[in-house]
Amino acid sequence: MNDNSLRKNDFNEISMKIILNAGDARLIIKEGLDCVAACEFEAAKEKLTEAKKKITAAHAAQTETIQGEARGEKIDFSLLFAHAQDTLMTIMSEWNTANHLVRLFETFDGRLRKLEEK
């Protein structure tokens, strides 16, 4: 096995690490949104914190690769890496939206509870 194929294998592993961590984050975000639907806002926030850790791990792998290229490492185009970046970007957007939804529904729930007390 030559160095070039080893690098490609390493690059594929990094891509899969990004995809798997981002995918795990997506599942955890879904669990968090299920908590929101049940008005379990603290549990939802915990899920989003857990998901953020997965996103951070995926982002670190991506950043390491991009910084390597910036240092002059030759990195050939990889459809798998492009897919990994796209997946990560999408999940980051989902996390941001879910984070806003938790705050929004928690506020609405609080207002509704106050109205019901009257």
What features would you highlight for this structure?
PTS_IIA_lac/cel_sf; 118 residues; Methane Monooxygenase Hydroxylase, Chain G, domain 1; transport; 88% helix; PTS_IIA_lac/cel; PTS system cellobiose-specific IIA component; mainly alpha; metal-binding
Verbal overview:
Mg(2+) binds at residue 86. The active site is at residue 83. This protein has helices at residues 3-37, 41-70, 79-117. Helices cover 88% and strands 0% of the residues. The protein has a single domain, classed as Methane Monooxygenase Hydroxylase, Chain G, domain 1 (Up-down Bundle), CATH 1.20.58. It is elongated and about 65 Å long. With 118 residues, the chain is mostly helical. The longest helix is centred in the last third of the chain and has 39 residues, at 79-117. Helix 1 (3-37) runs antiparallel to helix 2 (41-70) and helix 1 packs parallel to helix 3 (79-117). The termini are far apart.
What CATH calls the topology is Methane Monooxygenase Hydroxylase, Chain G, domain 1
Using only C-alpha atoms, the radius of gyration works out to 19 Å
Return the CATH class: Mainly Alpha
Number of distinct helices: 3
Number of domains: 1
Shape label: elongated
CATH level-four homologous superfamily name: Phosphotransferase system, lactose/cellobiose-type IIA subunit
DSSP helix fraction: over 70%
Mean pLDDT: 93
Instruction: Look at the helices and sheets and give the structural class.
Output: mainly alpha
Which regions have little confidence, pLDDT < 50, spanning 5+ residues?
none
Portion of residues in beta strands equals: under 5%
**Main sheet summary:** none
Query: Distance N terminus to C terminus?
Result: 74 Å
Helix and strand element order: HHH
- Strand tally is 0
Shape-level CATH architecture: Up-down Bundle
Keywords: Magnesium, Metal-binding, Phosphotransferase system, Sugar transport, Transferase, Transport
Active site: 83
Pfam families: PTS_IIA
Binding site for Mg(2+): 86
